[in-house]
Write a structure and sequence with these properties.
Layout lengths: L2 H18 L3 E2 L14 E2 L8 H16 L8 E4 L4 H12 L9 E7 L19 E9 L7 H21 L10 E4 L4 H15 L4 E5 L2 H18 L4 H12 E3 L5 E8 L1 H6 L4 E5 L7 E9 L3 H14 L3 E10 L14 H8 L5 E6 H11 L4 H14 L4
Parallel strand pairs: 3-4, 3-11, 5-9, 6-7, 6-9, 11-12, 12-13
Antiparallel strand pairs: 1-2, 4-10, 7-8
Amino acid sequence: MTEQENISRLRQRLIESLFNWDVFEFDARLSPEWVVHPFFMRLGRALGTGKRLRALRDVYKQLVLDNVHEDPDFVYGPAHKGIPLAALTAMAIGEDDSTKPVSYGFNLPGDATRAVQNVITVGNYIDDVSPTARIWLPFSEVDNSKKLREWAKYAAQTWHHNYNTEPHLRNLGFNLILGDGSAIPAAAALAAELAASYDIDPYFAIPRRTEEAVKRAADTLRRTLPILDGNRQKARLYAAERLFVGYVPDHARYLLVSPHKEETDKKKSAEYEFGAPMSEGSKAVLVDDSRMTGRTTNTMTTKLRLRYGDLKFLGGFYAVDIQEVPPDARMEKTNATLTRNVLQTGLPMTSLLTSWDIANYLHRLGKLSDQDFQKAVDARRMYGAQA
């Protein structure tokens, strides 16, 4: 099978998975800031369970390795969705025991390490959420692919053994793994390992910044209740998506994976970064769920180059390219795609899917009417880069 055929199959697999995971929504009333589009994507849902994380891990591994000509030794992921993606991609690339461990890094907004302390506020939006157990974990114990893989295997085996053989521990069963701060990668790795080795599919979620997230959640609840004809359960789901990346179900019993207390106390700036030390000339890739105008990538790569100096970026990799052109580039559409892909960042960008691929797919399935498909065409002409 040729490389192009591999990518084509990978693209088809991803778009079918996103559809099956209910990532696409078609009710513009629920997203007034995006009413110009006939559909929108809630890509956080793609991270919502262990099996989904495992599937994305394999997708990103193949996407990276099929598009770089050197072996990366560092994977970086911007907050929030990029954090588990970076850790799992590093784990997948470095899973061969003969391969040098692959390190990973990420940024965290301020107050992220204290976010779960306010998880009680979720009670206003999700029914019956309560803790069952907590793991304290220093980042240094899981800061590369080998350490993370070994920890996830041990934790999954221990939990599975205790839960199935020790009667007095059965009340510690959980259906949600919640990752906090620098322990987010470990939480994601544990969820994916339970899915892969034991066919257990726990939910997975990451808390957003508390003060802003709680305000947005309350606003979402107020706005969506009338739209959803008083369906409080569905309105709560949308409100919870303002508080978390991933999925928090009603009646959740969560295992909380937290950073070590000393580590938490040291990291209280407006924004901070975690990552294993990189050697001179490290070869890095950046991964995230989606890209819009490319400016976030530009900011991240600039910061990393300033911090690490002699850092070689091999490329940026995304599941979906929204294909939105920056406002200052919309007058020059012919150069817009080139501007977004290379000039802003100095490195090649690779996305498995584009918003246009998704519009065509949904149209063929009959999920987008001819009229709504024309809206997608018009939105692309007005705001998007031309393919």
